[in-house]
Amino acid sequence: MIEILNSTQLTRAKTTGALVGDILQTLKNRSTVGTTLLDIDRWAEKMIVEAGATSCYVDYAPSFGRGPFGHYICTAVNDAVLHGMPYDYPLADGDLLTLDLAVSKGGVAADAAISFIVGDARPPESVAMISATERALAAGISAAGPGARIGDISHAIGTTLTEAGYPINTQFGGHGIGSTMHQDPHVSNTGRPGRGYTLRPGLLLALEPWIMADTAELVTDADGWTLRSATGCRTAHSEHTIAITDDGAEILTLPTQARP
């Protein structure tokens, strides 16, 4: 299903997107050495509930997981990259943490992810990986607009990641979003320009470039959810929900302090 939102729904999408961005920023600020992943999940739950919203993950039970997920946010550390299930792990200085949050409010969902380094350490490889995903996300957003194709976005993301020297996994990527978290069209993190669905105003897309340092192969934890790099290398993931507008694309999941 591909949804095209009307003006009322787009207004609600902006509210949901701002909530996601603000929660992620708050969680980043609170995530210090010694914080556990379960602490982060509890904080996310509290903020979501207080906002009158719902997490898209608690009851999430797709065919590829061992569901329902049962937590409010995905937390992935170091070699974990996607669908990281929170557990009682205390963060250490230099850990690379990814937080992925999808929330629904007013009947419209928004989805975003951030990767950052915990504590004072700044491992150069981790800094480079995070930067590459952020640049790829910016390139994908720049390629989005009315009349553009999904392949244009995929090509922009993939070119950035490949030029940075990272292999690309195509099992998981971006997606349409609206009244539900995951919708068509799928947005691969690499592709050919001029191909695929033509973008229209009112379409919401969650774009999410993610990489692993030296492999494109994933393995699944015993929890049935957490996806890790097959080699144990570090990973990074950046994501925003955007709305296609009459003249381009608007990022909906920026935190309030980062909005123009």
Automatic annotation (TrEMBL):
Substrate binds at H83, H182. It catalyses: Release of N-terminal amino acids, preferentially methionine, from peptides and arylamides. Pfam families: Peptidase_M24 (PF00557). A divalent metal cation 1 binds at D100, D111, E239. Its cofactor is Co(2+); Zn(2+); Mn(2+); Fe(2+). A divalent metal cation 2 binds at D111, H175, E208, E239. Binds 2 divalent metal cations per subunit. Has a high-affinity and a low affinity metal-binding site. The true nature of the physiological cofactor is under debate. The enzyme is active with cobalt, zinc, manganese or divalent iron ions. Most likely, methionine aminopeptidases function as mononuclear Fe(2+)-metalloproteases under physiological conditions, and the catalytically relevant metal-binding site has been assigned to the histidine-containing high-affinity site. SUPFAM superfamilies: Creatinase/aminopeptidase. It is an enzyme of class 3 (hydrolase). Its EC number is 3.4.11.18. The keyword Cell inner membrane does not apply. It comes from the Bacteria. Keywords: Aminopeptidase, Hydrolase, Metal-binding, Protease. GO terms for molecular function: aminopeptidase activity. Residues 16-246 form the Peptidase M24 domain. Coiled coil: none annotated. The keyword Transcription regulation does not apply. HAMAP family: MetAP_1. NCBIfam families: met_pdase_I (TIGR00500). Removes the N-terminal methionine from nascent proteins. The N-terminal methionine is often cleaved when the second residue in the primary sequence is small and uncharged (Met-Ala-, Cys, Gly, Pro, Ser, Thr, or Val). Requires deformylation of the N(alpha)-formylated initiator methionine before it can be hydrolyzed. Monomer. Belongs to the peptidase M24A family. Methionine aminopeptidase type 1 subfamily. This is Methionine aminopeptidase. It comes from Streptomyces varsoviensis.
